[in-house]
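During the no-cost extension, the postdoctoral fellow (Dr. R.K.) reprocessed legacy sequence entries with the updated structure-token encoder. One reprocessed record is reproduced below for audit purposes.
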Amino acid sequence: RKQATDYSTSSSDEELESKPSLTHKAKRALRKRRKLEKETKQLIKQEELKRLHKAQAIQRQLEELEERQRTLEIFGVELERELRGEADSGTKDENQMLHEWFELVMEKNKLMRYESELLIIAQELELEDHQSRLEQKLREKMAIDDSLKDEMDLNEEDEI
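Re-encoded structure tokens follow.
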């Protein structure tokens, strides 16, 4: 028995030694896999940066929008006072003031719609970022051999 075991062990060693191209191929495949992983990580970082820049642009637009809405609100309050006769309207007639007031209301509604659109885009970016993180986490989990995972790891992978 012992001789047979020794023989089988030495024959498998001889097979590995006689096929150096196999280890070379394995090394090459490993290098290729690492290169692919590195490229994937770079692409993920680029996508994250794009989303970050887009989110920053949206934030700036929301701030500008808020300032514009504040200005319109101040102007609207003053216009309403003039319409009620609480403030000096000067040379403006009531029709002109009503026209300005309706224009103001239309502009405010337009800004509110735009704000809603920006918030939807921001939420979309947030969801894309969350999806990207989940995909990365899943890739990391799937890279581990199933035989090394316990039930908790498998459940977590399924949940992701």
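The chain is about 90% helix and 0% strand. Residues 20-84 form the longest helix (65 residues). The remaining legacy entries will be reprocessed before the final report is submitted.
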